[in-house]
Specification:
With 199 residues, the chain is an alpha+beta fold. The protein has two helices and ten strands. Strands 1, 2, 3, 4, 5, 6, 7, 8, 9 and 10 form a ten-stranded mixed sheet that branches. About 5% of the residues have low confidence.
């Protein structure tokens, strides 16, 4: 799931280099690095939440509710349920005028390992799943990977990595808006959601 868009460029270097810490707030650390597959940087988020793996799994599997916490997500629709832990969904990202909204179809697979107390969720865009829609730019590349580990009773550690190419024209002001504000607000929203579940 592309929870935020448009990580900033750093020069013209491509390849998986070292992560650089770019922001830290509310116990949420945000990093970026040059991408091996996109001209836009990869993003990594690391944080700890109050809650359980099962609670995180329920949130990430509930596609229709992504609009409640994923930054700038205007619509999120389940397209095909392959199994209880695998599905295809469609999402529209609200982009401020005069830029153009983005959309994508994605295949999502959830793996919960009770032996290692870990949850892995991989969401990868499918560029040509259905034809592009008028006045919306199709995101050509979006791969989000959640690695979540139970570290204590009702406490989880989250590592989220996003590799993205938003497609189309991306003006600098839009790049700045989504590269820091989007990731931070997404995880602040998630953190609050988990707190409410564990009051």
């Amino acid at each position: 799931m592309a929870l935020f868009l448009f990580s900033p460029l750093i020069g013209s270097f491509h390849g998986n280099g070292s992560w650089l810490l770019v922001k830290e707030q509310d116990g949420i650390k945000m990093y970026n690095r040059p991408s091996a597959n996109s001209k836009f940087n990869d993003i990594k988020i690391e944080t700890d939440f109050v809650g359980t793996l099962l609670q995180m799994e329920a949130i990430l599997a509930n596609v229709e509710k992504y609009t409640e916490w994923a930054y700038a997500t205007k619509a999120s629709i389940l397209i095909k349920k392959i199994s209880q832990t695998e599905f295809i969904y469609y999402s529209v990202v609200d982009v401020p005028w005069p830029a153009t909204d983005r959309d994508y179809y994605a295949h999502c697979k959830i793996t919960l390992d009770s032996a290692t107390h870990t949850l892995k969720v991989v969401s990868a865009s499918i560029k040509n799943y259905l034809p592009e829609k008028k006045n919306i730019v199709r995101i050509p590349l979006s791969t989000g990977t959640w690695n979540i580990t139970a570290i204590a009773n009702k406490k989880v550690h989250i590592e989220y990595i996003l590799e993205l190419d938003p497609g189309g024209s991306v003006p600098p002001w839009l790049l700045n808006l989504f590269s820091t504000k989007g990731p931070m607000e997404t995880f602040q929203n998630l953190k609050q959601k988990m707190k409410l579940l564990n009051r």
